[in-house]
Every structure is written in structure tokens, then in C-alpha cells.
Amino acid sequence: MSTAPVDHHLDLTTQDILTYGSWGLTLVLLGVAIHLGRKERTPFYALIVLAAMVAAFAEPLYDAGLMLYFYSTEGMYTHFTAFGIPQPVWTHSGYAVLYAAPAIMITRKIRLGTLTRNGLFAWAGVELLMSCTFEMIGINGGAYTYWGPHELRILDYPLVIGVLEAAQVICFAVAATQLRERVKSPVGLLGLFVLFPCTFFMANFGAGSPVIIALHLEDTSRLIVALASLLSIAFAAAAIRGASSFLPTTAGQSEAAAVGSPVGGFSRTRIAADMPTGGPVATPSTAK
Fold it and tell me: Which domain holds residue 231?
């Protein structure tokens, strides 16, 4: 089996683009999240950004499993190393831009009752395109590589990676919305810091388990890796389909949270005019 390209030259220009570009976008994203939070009187959106950024400390687990290596020659901006993989400082801002930004948009649309199941599938496609764009820049620009025997690559980017990332963002966004509807105070929203890594590794190490095992097999082959990649893609698609079951087929069909409700959005308004907040009432035709 080949080994990680520890001596491969790091392109410093690409590093600067990823570092300053992603951190600049992260500051903008935090501003937007705080603005939305003030409108709805909740720290929910800002905590999504912070949860994603903190979760980036677990990036070495992902790198080891899916065989990613950040080029670490002289001039690398790094703050820690784990599993023999130096971590660039832009991983935290990268998580915010690539994962938290779409999650904020998705959760807000769900809250407003404007996102349907088909709309969620469309957002999965958007996240896939975002992942492909971001990672193709990093890979082909000389910042890092997926050095394992990956198959089904586009411009050296394994397609299975983008699908898994789309699945984890969708699952996180839907799960975060469910958490917001159920917690009793802003303190409960701190669960986002646990929820993000749970959904991240559920998708990448759960749905991604076939391809991870195939990559690390002693006597693996291109066919095995290709078939395992397709199986992981199918598992990721199933996860997205499962997450979509929490959404209505038509906009405004289900209960929606009141935008002006306090902190976590702990009270919800009923869409149906004939349905009081306490639930259905007995009528002469149904009462016994």
C-alpha cells in the first residue's frame, strides 16, 4: 500500500487563498448568524457556526479514515498534529463555510415552513457542488490530497467524498432543527456542539464505512474500491432520503415555528385554522 505524501511540496499561494478567503467568509457568516439570531431572539444560528468550527478539531479522524493528507512542507500554517497529519489553521473556517453556512439556510427555511422534501434534495445538490468546488481548488491547487486508492475521481477529487459531505450537512441541519424545537432554554442549544460531530461521523464513517474499509484492505483492488464507493454513495443517499421524511411534501403543510418566538423557538404555531394549540377537540360526531 502507498504511504502518505509527507514530503510533497505545499503551494503557499493556495494556502493563503484557503486561509484568508475562508476566514474572511467565516467572519461574514458569523455576522449574518448573529443578525438572524437577534431577529429571532436566539443564539441558534451563531452556535451552528461555532459548533462546526469546534468540530474541526476532530478532522484528523476523518483524514485517517478517508486517507487525506495536508501537505506540510516549510511554510505551512498549522496549529496541531494528530495521527501524523498536521492540521492547517483553515480547517475551522473551512468547516464554517462548507458546512455551517448551508446548514443555517436549511434550518431557517425549515423553520419558516418553506422547505419541502424536494427542496431538501436540491440543497443536497448545492452542498455537493460546494464541496466539489472547495476541494477541487484545494487539491488541484496543491494544498492537500486524498492519497489513498480512491476511484470515481473528478479532477482528482473522489466523488464519494462530496456525496458523504452532502449527507452529513443535510442530516445535521434536520437534526439541529429538531433539537431547536424541543429544548426548553438557550442552554439546551449547546447540544449542537455534540450533535455536529455525531452527524458528521454518522455520515462519513457510517455511510462511508464500505469505502473506508475498501481503502484500507491489505489486498484491495480498483474494482473493490469502486464498488464500495458506489455502496457508500447509496448509503448517503438513503440517509438524505431518511432526513427528508421529517419535512412535508408541500410547503406550509406542517407545523411551523413562529419567527417571533423567544430564544430556541420553543413555541410553535398551528397552520390549520381549525386546530387549536392544545390539539384537536371533541366534536358531536366524534365524542362518545
Answer: 12-252
Spatial contact of 115 and 33, defined as CB atoms under 8 Å apart: no
In a domain, 269, yes or no: no
Q: What is the pLDDT of residue 2?
A: 78
Grid look-up 462546526 returns 52
The secondary structure of 119-157 as a DSSP string is: HHHHHHHHHHHHHHHHHHHHHHTTSEEE-S---SEETTE
Ranges of the chain whose pLDDT falls below 70: 1, 252-288
**CA atoms of 48 and 53, how far apart (whole Å):** 9
In one letter, which amino acid is 130?
M
Is residue 44, in this structure, part of any structural domain at all?
A: yes
CB 5 within 8 A of CB 148: no
pLDDT at 1: 57
Position 181 scores a pLDDT of: 94
Specify the number of domains making up the chain. Answer: 1
pLDDT for residue 98: 97
Q: How far apart are the first and last CA of the chain?
A: 73
Would you say residue 67 lies in a domain? yes
Q: Is 2 part of a structural domain of the chain?
A: no
